[in-house]
Structures are given as structure tokens and as C-alpha cells.
Amino acid sequence: MGKTSLGILGYDSFHFAVANAERSRNFYLDTFDFAEIAKAGADLVARSGQTSFVVKAGEVVVVVSSAVRPEAKASRFLRKHPCGVMSLSFQVRDAEHAMKELDRRGATVLSDLFVDQRDGGVYKSFEIATPLGDLNYRFIERKEYPYFAPGFENVKQDPSIPTNKYGITSIDHVTSNMRTMAPFLFWLEHVMGMEPYWDVTFHTEDVAPEKGKGSGLKSKVMWDPESGIRFANNEPLKPYFNASQIAKFVEDNAGAGVQHAALLVPDLISVVRSLKNKGVRFLKTPGAYYDELPKILAERGVTNLAEPMDVLRELEILVDGRGDKYMLQIFLEDAALLYNEPQAGPFFFEIIQRVGHPGFGEGNFRALFEAIEREQQKQK
């Protein structure tokens, strides 16, 4: 017999705990052209001890919470961690079914099923603990529910406001870092019901400029074939285990957690140009990468690259693919670098454009790794 489906439909939302809500608001609304769709009502703020607002671009929904009292969930999270993702939510067809099935598989369910019925709609949700420490997963069922969540008020929007000007459509994948990923992979497979999708292992020791330097990672991607959601998972690789930027993330984050989320767009070049004009900084890519890129793409059978190589070099966009299917990707600096403030946290966004290629930029992992390490060296 096949395994019982949890009925996951896709990502629902990301919930961030931040110390500077206004800065986050400006980042999403002004820089990335998200639209504010909801905010915590006065009663919810009074009960929870935190203010929250909700923004959306395409199917990407982000909740940002900031504490106004020390007992708030955001405050408890920020006492242990820098700003970052404190919960990740999924849409499900039937929350009661998903809860019972997860409980049967050994998930640690944190509360009874929450149900709210109003204005002709129904909202159901529950949370489970994860091996990623203080980060929880939430499962949400909505049926004709006219609000984001109980206690939230809709924010009136001008119907003439266009869709996100960058064309952000959805979350392509979510990447988490941890010191050891075997327990999490086991949990994703046997509790969440996910399957292996892709993996890569490499180390930069062979190209380190000084003997005894370099670092590496093991990365394994798990996915839910029914919904298509994908989780990339990284751990450091010996030698120089603690020198790895994965280990540094875990140190800076005070534990395992979500390192980045990838935003899917249809035209990465125009997005990067526009964001750079707004002062957004991206991780640097060495010129040598572009010197070798035509040869690498030819070896992999990518002969239909539509984007000019000089433009990709100028904007420092990464390319990978096989057999005339390719992808373009770029990574923002993490929040701590972006704001020159360690407490802002090591989370960052990736932006990705896919031209038929479903992979994860295997050929770009080393370039990204080296770029992050160069930025880390600047901070020493």
C-alpha cells in the first residue's frame, strides 16, 4: 500500500520575528513591491503582545511580527536568536486529516486543532515542532475564509494597484542549515512524508589560496511530489568543519534554521537591474566564473542561452543547466550584511528564473560558497 497523503497544497506563509518592523515594512513594500494585505487587530495585539502585518507578492505571503511585550512569541524567539523565520506554514486540504496523520507518524503536535468560523468561512490550523529547534511548522485549511487569519484585519487596497512589478510568482524552494542533517532528513521523510529529490557534496579545499583553508557542504533536497514544495538542507563538510559558511550560519543564528527562500520570477535581468538601482546589494561573483561559463554550458549541452553573457557578468547573475534547459539565479546579501547589524540575522532571499531546468544550480554552489566566504572574511 502507498503512504497516506497529508494533503499539502503548497506553501502558505512565512512568519518572521523582527526587532525593527518599520525597516522590514520598507523592505517588502518599497523595495520588493509586496502589497500589504492584513494586519493584527487591536484585540490580537493585546492578547499576543506583538504587532504583525502581512504582505503578499504573487503566491508569496510573509508575516512580520514585532514584540510590544516581553512575553510575546516574537520576543521569546529574539531572546534566543537574531531576526529570522520562526514558523513556516503550509496549506492543506483537510487540517483534521493532516493532524491525525502527522500524529500517527510521530509528529509532536503543539496544541489541539484551532477552528474559527465567521462570515460564512472556516479557518482551521495546528502547529508541530520540528528538529530545527524553535522553528515550528503550521498547517492551515481555509474554506471561503475572508481574512488572513483569526484576529487579523484586512487592509483596504486600491483595486487599480497592479500585480508585483517584478513578477514574483511563488516560492521556488526553502533552504535550511544545520550542523547535522540526518535527523532532519529522517524526519522529513518519515514524518512529513517527503522524498529525496537532489543532492550535492563539495569542498573548496582544492582551490583555497592558502594551504589548510577551504570549507564545504553536503546538501540534500527533499520534496513533496504531490504539492511540489521542495526543501534544500545543508550541513558543513570536513575538513575545517567549523570554517564552513553553513557552520557560521548556525553560529550566527544560535541554532539551525531557515537560511534563505527562493523567489521565482520570469525575467531575472530586469529584476536585478531595478533592485540594484534601489541600492539592493547582492553577493559578488568572481569574474573568473564568467570566463569559464561558456565552456561549462557547452559541456552541459546548454546552447540556447538567451541572455547576453556580458549582461550576466555585469549583473553577476549565475547560470546552470543541462540539455538546453537552464536556470538563472542570484542571492541577496543576508540581512546582517545588508544592514550592518548582526542582530538583523543571517537570513537572505534568492531570486531565480527557470527556463525548463528543475535543478538547484549544482555548478553554482561553489561560486556561491566562495562568494559568501569572501563576504565573511571582510567582516573579520
Describe the structure.
With 380 residues, the chain is of the alpha+beta class. It is built from eleven helices and 17 strands. The protein has helices spanning 21-31, 42-48, 73-80, 95-104, 182-190, 245-252, 268-277, 287-299, 309-315, 335-338, 362-378; strands at 8-17, 35-40, 50-57, 60-67, 84-92, 114-118, 121-128, 136-143, 152-154, 170-177, 195-203, 216-223, 230-237, 257-264, 318-322, 325-331, 348-355. The strands form two sheets. It has a nine-stranded mixed beta sheet with strand order 6-7-8-5-1-4-3-2-9. The protein has an eight-stranded mixed beta sheet with strand order 11-12-13-10-14-17-16-15, with helices on both faces.
**Shape field:** globular
Q: Could you name the CATH class of the largest domain?
A: Alpha Beta
- Output mean pLDDT: 92
Q: Which architecture name of the largest domain does CATH use?
A: Roll
Strand count, sense and barrel status of the largest sheet are: 9 strands, mixed
Distance between the terminal alpha carbons, to the nearest Å? 55 Å
Element-level helix/strand string? EHEHEEHEHEEEEEHEEEHEHHHEEHEH
Query: What is the number of independent domains?
Result: 2
